[in-house]
Amino acid sequence: MSEVFDEDEWNEFHSNTNFNDDIKSILQLYHLREYRKKYDLPIYIETMKLLNDSQIEKIQLAILHFMHNKEIVIETLPTSNVRIGHHQNFKTYHLWNWFKWKEEGKVIPPIVVGTDDTGIFTTNIYNEFANIYCYLIGDGKVTHNKALSIIERLNRDSLTYRFEKL
């Protein structure tokens, strides 16, 4: 048997009285090299067979509510999220759902705008805000004043929750 426990972990595992033999057997299998090779294999799940759109939305809102209560901030990286995510363009970007839900009175944590690797995505923070603004007044069909209000809130949250060198 070829385990991948380190010696301290192995000793702790065997001396732990909270584990009955069944649990120890399962944990030992979990650490076998032959099983661990399988951990890197992708698992494909057809989510729409498990949950419908309404259920997924409820789960998303529950997670956002939890994040808000725990003061966990969302960082959105529009350009890289659209380029490397499942979004075909900005029309399907999840940020718009967060704005819509906030308008509906749903609890949404603060959202900060960031940039990803600027060398790869050829963007900067100004472009990210411009992309958001342009979508809002274009396909988002939001007035100029409303779009600016959203941008101001995003900027305020970004300034509040930024990392600074001390």
Structure description:
This protein is mainly α and 166 residues long. The chain has 2 domains: 7-40, no CATH class; 48-160, no CATH class. The chain has helices spanning 7-15, 21-30, 33-36, 47-50, 53-69, 78-84, 95-103, 118-121, 125-137, 144-160, and strands spanning 74-76, 111-113. A two-stranded parallel ribbon has the order 1-2. α9 packs antiparallel against α10 (144-160). 9% of the residues are buried. The model has no long low-confidence stretch (mean pLDDT 87).
What is the N-to-C succession of helices and strands? Answer: HHHHHEHHEHHH
Query: Based on CA inertia axes, which overall geometry fits?
Result: elongated
Q: What integer value in Å does the Rg equal?
A: 23 Å
> Helix amount, in percent?
55-70%
* Main sheet properties: 2 strands, parallel
DSSP strand count: 2
**What order do the strands of the largest sheet run in, or round the barrel if closed?**
1-2
Number of domains: 2
Which quaternary structure do these chains form? single chain
Query: Structural class from helices and strands?
Result: mainly alpha
Stretches with pLDDT under 50, minimum 5 residues: none
Question: Topology, pairings included?
Answer:
Elements: H1 7-15, H2 21-30, H3 33-36, H4 47-50, H5 53-69, E1 74-76, H6 78-84, H7 95-103, E2 111-113, H8 118-121, H9 125-137, H10 144-160
Parallel strand pairs: 1-2
Helix pairs in contact: 9-10
Structure, briefly:
This protein is mostly helical.
